[in-house]
Amino acid sequence: MYIVVLGAPGAGKGTQADILCRKLNLPHVASGDLFRQALEKKTELGLLAKSYMERGELGPSEIAINMILERIGLADCASGCVFDGFPRTLEQAEALDKALMEEGKSIDKSVYIRVPQEELIKRLSGRWICRNCQTPYHLVAAPPRVAGKCDKCGGELYQRTDDKEETVIERLKVFFEQTLPIVDYYKKQGKLIEINGNLGIQDVAEEIISALKPFMIADVKNSD
Ligand code: AP5
Q1: How many domains are contained in the chain?
Q2: What confidence tens digit (pLDDT) does each residue in 145-168 have?
Q3: N or C: which terminus of the chain has fewer CB atoms within 10 Å of its end residue's CB?
Q4: Given 36, 109, 123, 127, which residue is catalytic?
Q5: Domain limits at 121?
Q6: Which residues contact ligand 1 via a Cβ below 6 A?
């Protein structure tokens, strides 16, 4: 299955994509993580993305598209993956559809996680991320077992520089102006699943799995 997880900054895309990937045994393809990894390694792409990320703006679409197409060209994505943070514009959504179509594939479902704006700000201000495996934690909602250390890999936790208030406000503005139209794009294709993301992490995960289940069964039946 190819699944797109959509939502505003802080909606829980990374958190839910991670849970979904473990449940469905699919790779997690997160454009923000790929940009941050490039930045850590100080590659040309990372240095280019840095200024956009610091301002809370989207990086150039062409770069994001090439980076994602390269990632899904790897063997582990041959039969599916969970996209998180991509696509983010109509141009990116169309480019992804075109690339998948050329391989005889398509997006199966797009999960839109809806969360009120005041909750998004609370989540982003309490977020800590693993520098090594990118797992997100939250000081209150999802604290690590040992302060400052990742439960999964023991990596160091840090706060993203784009989680400061003025950048968060810009990221939210960018989401509503440039990314929200994608919700309609997938709705028109009959692929959209809307989820109330203003619940606890496990409750949101259960809602997503139960909304996807009928299509997962259909998938298995079709492959019989
Ligand atoms: P990206 O990394 O994709 O950031 P984002 O979309 O702003 O989303 P976030 O990662 O901030 O939030 P999330 O929804 O994943 O929430 P999370 O699960 O962490 O992009 C960063 C930048 O990279 C962009 O601004 C842009 O510059 C660039 N970029 C990336 N993709 C691009 C593209 N395609 N094109 C161009 N540029 C691109 O959760 C947040 C917090 O809340 C965590 O602490 C978590 O523990 C907590 N939490 C999660 N769920 C719940 C819950 N249900 N209840 C309580 N707390 C919760």
Answers
A1: 2
A2: 999 999 999 999 999 989 988 899
A3: C
A4: 127
A5: 117-159
A6: 7, 9-15, 31-32, 35, 52-53, 56-59, 64, 85-86, 88, 92, 123, 126-127, 136-138, 141-142, 162, 171, 197, 199-201, 204
